[in-house]
C-alpha cells in the first residue's frame, strides 16, 4: 500500500505539473517584477563637508502588468516554446518532490487513522501534510532551483542569460560553477512553502470531500472531486504565496564571484522586498498563483482519483 501511494501520487503530479506549466512560468515572471528597482543611496563625495547629506536615487519602476499581458509578451518576444521553458525541471521536480509528499501523506494517514471508526482528525491530516511536504521539498529542492532559473531566464538581458539546455545541464553547471550547496539554495523557504502547501492542499481536499459526502450535497464523482480540489487550491494559494515570492527571488538571484549576494537569506530578502515595494509585494503574482494552483489542484486530484480506480486491484 505504501509503494502504491507513491506511484499514484507521482503519476497524478507529473500530469498536473506539465499541463499547468505555462501558468507557473507566468507566476514566476510576475513575482520577479520590480525586483531590480529598489532605491539606490548615493555615496557622499570624499571631500564633502560633514553636514553633507546623502541623496537617494529612485529609479522609476516599470509599470506592473497582469498575467495575460505577461503571457502575451512571452509569446511575442520569446515564442510559444518559451511558455514551456523549464518543463523538464518540472517533470523532475514532480517526480522527486510530489511523489515523495503524496506517498508519505498516504502512509501517515493510514498510520494515524483510528482503526475502529476508520476516521482521522483534521489536526492529524494537517500534521501529516506538514511532515510529508517538508521531506518532499528537501528531496526535490535541486530540481526546484533549476526550474525557477529556467523559467526566469527569458526576462534577463541576452548577455546575462544562463541558457540552460535542460534540467540536467542546469544542475550540473550550478554544481560546478557555484558549488553543490547552490542546489539547496533557498531550501528553508522551499521546505516552509511545501509544508504549507501540502498541509493546506491535501488536508483541505480530504476534509472538504468528506464533508460534501457526509452532508449528502453531492455523490462521490467528478463533481465532488472538482469542487473539493478547487477549494483546496485556493486555500493553498493564500497560505503559500508570500513564502513563494521570497523563494523565487532567493533561488533566482545571481551571485557574482567575489561579490556580495543580493540577499543574505530569506529574512533579508523579505525585508528588502517589503521596504522597496511594500508589503503587498509578498502577494505579487497571486492571480496567476491561484490561476495555476486552482487548475493544478483540480487536475492533480481528478487524475489521482482516476489512477486509484485503475490501480485498485493491485
TrEMBL record:
UniProt-listed InterPro entries: MCP (IPR002067), MCP_dom_sf (IPR023395), MCP_transmembrane (IPR018108), Mito_Metabolite_Transporter (IPR050391)
The UniProt record lists the keyword Membrane: yes
Protein topology in the membrane: Multi-pass membrane protein
Assigned keywords, A-Z: Membrane, Repeat, Transmembrane, Transmembrane helix, Transport
Coiled coil location: none
Pfam families: Mito_carr (PF00153)
Primary localization: membrane
Mapped Solcar repeat ranges: 4-111, 120-211, 220-310
Subcellular location: Membrane
Entry keyword Metal-binding: no
PANTHER family: MITOCHONDRIAL DICARBOXYLATE CARRIER-RELATED (PTHR45618)
Family note: Belongs to the mitochondrial carrier (TC 2.A.29) family.
Name of the protein in question: Mitochondrial uncoupling protein 5-like
Amino acid at each position: 500500500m505504501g509503494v502504491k501511494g507513491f506511484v499514484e501520487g507521482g503519476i497524478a503530479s507529473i500530469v498536473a505539473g506539465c499541463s499547468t506549466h505555462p501558468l507557473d512560468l507566468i507566476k514566476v515572471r510576475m513575482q520577479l517584477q520590480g525586483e531590480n528597482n529598489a532605491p539606490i543611496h548615493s555615496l557622499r563625495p570624499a571631500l564633502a563637508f560633514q553636514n553633507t547629506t546623502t541623496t537617494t536615487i529612485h529609479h522609476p519602476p516599470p509599470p506592473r502588468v497582469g498575467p495575460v499581458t505577461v503571457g502575451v509578451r512571452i509569446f511575442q518576444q520569446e515564442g510559444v516554446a518559451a511558455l514551456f521553458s523549464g518543463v523538464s525541471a518540472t517533470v523532475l521536480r514532480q517526480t522527486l518532490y510530489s511523489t515523495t509528499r503524496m506517498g508519505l501523506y498516504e502512509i501517515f494517514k493510514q498510520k494515524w487513522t483510528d482503526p475502529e471508526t476508520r476516521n482521522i482528525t483534521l489536526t492529524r491530516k494537517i500534521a501529516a501534510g506538514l511532515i510529508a511536504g517538508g521531506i518532499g521539498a528537501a528531496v526535490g529542492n535541486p530540481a526546484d532551483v533549476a526550474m525557477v532559473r529556467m523559467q526566469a531566464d527569458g526576462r534577463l538581458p541576452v548577455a546575462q542569460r544562463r541558457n540552460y539546455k535542460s534540467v540536467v545541464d542546469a544542475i550540473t553547471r550550478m554544481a560546478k560553477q557555484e558549488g553543490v550547496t547552490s542546489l539547496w539554495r533557498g531550501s528553508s523557504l522551499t521546505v516552509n512553502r511545501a509544508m504549507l502547501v501540502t498541509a493546506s492542499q491535501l488536508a483541505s481536499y480530504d476534509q472538504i470531500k468528506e464533508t460534501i459526502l457526509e452532508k449528502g450535497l453531492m455523490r462521490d464523482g467528478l463533481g465532488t472531486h472538482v469542487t473539493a480540489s478547487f477549494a483546496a487550491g485556493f486555500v493553498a494559494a493564500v497560505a503559500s504565496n508570500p513564502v513563494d515570492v521570497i523563494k523565487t527571488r532567493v533561488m533566482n538571484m545571481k551571485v557574482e564571484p567575489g561579490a556580495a549576494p543580493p540577499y543574505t537569506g530569506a529574512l533579508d530578502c523579505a525585508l528588502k522586498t517589503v521596504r522597496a515595494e511594500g508589503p503587498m509585494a509578498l502577494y505579487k503574482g497571486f492571480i496567476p498563483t491561484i490561476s495555476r494552483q486552482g487548475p493544478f489542484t483540480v487536475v492533480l486530484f481528478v487524475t489521482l482519483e482516476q489512477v486509484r480506480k485503475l490501480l485498485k486491484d493491485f
